[in-house]
Amino acid sequence: MKKITLVLAATIGALLFMTTACKKKVETETVYVDNTPAAGPPSLYTRLGGIAPISAVVDKFITNCASNAFIGPRFSTTASDPYRLKYFRYNLIDQICAGSGGPCQYKGKTMLAAHTGMSLTNAEFDTLVGQLVKAMTFYNVPATEQNDLATILLPMRADIVGH
Amino acid sequence: MKKSSFIKIGKATLFLLSLGLLSLTIWANWDETTYTQQNTQTAMYKTYDISQVDPNLYGQIEQKISLLNGVTACSLNSVDKLIGVMFLTSKISDTELQAKLKVVLGSTISERTFGSKTGGCPVTGVKYLVLHIRDLFRFRS
Asked: ipTM of this model?
């Protein structure tokens, strides 16, 4: 029994070391490099200003949606629960950040899987898009960047509506 | 049953429990903290009824409240007379926010909620539970 305990303790110790110490090393080595060629135009992520402006737009977008009488009830459970809101917010930021060429990685569900069972209508989706445009306009995001972001997000309609 | 058997069973149970706890800890700490998690703070959202507020102030409400320390976003719904506010829990508490809103709006406000709609939450119950357990055992920052 003592031998087994010792072997187990050593294995667990090694695993803990691998998950904490080793990965932390990788973390410190991870530096964001804009994958846009040096001579080419900057990525949408760079043009939007990085993670902080994206986060500000996402927060404004969520408050716009949650306070809207038409689509607000769809968001009330998520928005009123700090824990759900935390992951919903992370997912939205990750999605825009990753889609615009930033260093984030979207780890949430696919749009189809996330919205199946919600029976969302085109009118609700259009209202949602309107709230995003309103949020970007509030923070003076230029029309070019707004259109570029819309080009990334609008094709998701097929996976979001009617499931 | 002999005393030695009890001790053996007790040891085995303790061993399995420790193994379970350590497995949970390893699983919870396996993933790196994401770039977004490293660069954004935890926020909270509240909806407030502003039916007592002078409608002449509506034009400035969003800007004024958005400028409050700790507030990350504010949206006005003038038709339903309510505001939605998102704020950083590390910088301002719910009570402090309400007190500041009363000063800015010059009137009493109360919390308000929309009724939730079926199928309205993309973060489902199972996912919610898994995330809660993971965060409970997570110490990586």
From this structure: 0.84
